[in-house]
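Deliverable D5.2: sample structural annotation.
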Amino acid sequence: MNFNRALLALSISASLLSLSACKQQADVTANPNADVTTKTPAASTNETADQFIERVNNEIRADYPEVTAAQWLASTNIGGDSEIVSSKANERSLAKLSVYIAKAKTYKETDPMTPETKRALQLLKLGVTLPPPNDPKQLAELTQLATKLDGMYGSGKYCTDPKDDKTCKDIGQLSKILADTDKSTYEQQLDAWNGWHTISKPMRAPYQRFIELSNIGAKDLGFANTGDLWRGGYDMPAADFQAETDRLWGQVEPLYKQLQCYTKNKLVEKYGADKGQIDGKIPAHLTGNLWQQDWGNLWPLVEPYKGVGSLDINSVLQRQHDVILNDMLKKQGGTAKLSATEIAEITRDADLAHAKQMAKLAEGFYTGLGMPKLPDSFWNNAQFIKPRDREVVCHASAWDMNFAGDVRIKMCITPTEDDLTTLYHEYGHVYYYLAYNKLPPIFQAGANDGFHEAIGDTIVLSMTPDYLNSIGLVDKPVVSQEAVINGQMRMALAKVAFMPFGLMIDRWRWGVFDGSIKPENYNKAWWELKAKYQGVAPVTARGEDNFDPGAKYHVPGNTPYTRYFLSHILQFQFYKSLCDSSGYKGPLYQCSFANNPEAGKRYWAMLEKGASQPWPATMKELTGGEKMDGSAVLEYFAPLNTWLQEQNKGKQCGWK
């Protein structure tokens, strides 16, 4: 889900989202003490604010393809060389950004300028997530640390014998152990979870220095710290934004607590009171997920009504893939006439063909709303499957390469429901890029960063059983109350379970940035927040020799995370509005606005606005209101919430 998606052309951090596990990379060899060489933007001393913004937009548009190309290379061909190229490109970009921001700060609100220029100046000062220090040596060190931390995560592996590569497991292999909650033993899940958390131990020292340098950059921009800068980008004072997220969490927290209680008690039934809970909290290694952010893999344990309304999309996708593969093999004379190498190449061709077939399904939803087909360059340049000849970042991400229609996704698609859903999500970013490409570069971003993440997930909510039946992936769905509860439970394990996780990561980072969380308490504070918000805990104490925050990519990757919490609120709010505009009448959870031109027209109109106006104004155009609101979440999950309350009666709920 996503990723550092260039929310502003200027806000380019040293890496994009990555969750793949790759071979150890060479260290960046650039001299951290070398001066940053950057071409100072040409400007006259009496440049008006309007002239300044026009120049900046022109220079961003010209420079941006180089930076994104370097990042694309670093993500699709991991290695020491690509690290250096990416690091130096980011270094030049951030150095130039610091010049722009310094200039922007010289203009006063009373200076003559258009409203568009006034907003652009505000975004210019607030849009950066990796604030560049003024000192060139510190800037060089910061960008290299960012690239180093990204590489440490991407190359992470758990090896029972560090001298023997055969004993090593990457994130995909460890995740599979955790995902198989039905067959993996308690001990196997614990070993996999502990194993992944060894990869982040070496990050502690470079991350501490990274925080120091980032805060220097934030102070050079006039902010108290980087957290203050991040919270300032929501068209409201930073303190008000924190209160706003508290308000939104307060709306949905009761629903989460019901889900946590039910899930914890199911774990107690399976593992016993001594292993299935920790003072009412869920053991961190038993959620089927490395970070406890998605509980979907607990489905076999928590399924309310066994087999009712089952949607076996994985089997259908696998059969589609196998048909393509068998046809290709047959055309070449069958496996008996082919070498192992030839079979491997044909299998890869089948993987790519089916991945593109899945991608076409996702495109079809958007074009069915009246949005344009994706350009040929998308199909030629995107990474659809994992290459065999190099290490890549497999975690899905969407890319705008040039502000002019060269859009891409980067995935390692497999024939699974998860990857199909991810495609529908990633296309939300892609179509957002295309919708606002006509705007000046500074406005080419989401109305706020939560918007960007919510666009595709709003579409995912519309992937109802009836819609899936319409595209041939499931049989005509059975309609019953039991099927409704099962469907809602599956959705809640992904959506509701995620919400406190989406909130707590930046609660931790804000404390790290402002110094209220000291380096010697990094891990202690992390688990205190996970207990407070998620009601999860490790089975054994995690001392300060560990650095468990670094085991989640977005921490070493420096990607603000509150956007994902906001997106989980916004997507239901957008969904309800689009369902209303499509003319739908009925329970919200049954709505699909697929192939509805009115819904598509309203959605595209919102996407076209980008960041050109404060997000409340953009919100109002679609929803009729200017506030984010969790009530649509509660309306959607109302049947499940009632059912959970019944199931939890007389059970031990809450945690210490």
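Annotation notes: The first strand starts at residue 158 and ends at 159. Residues 310-432 form one domain.
The annotation will be released with the project's public dataset once the embargo ends.
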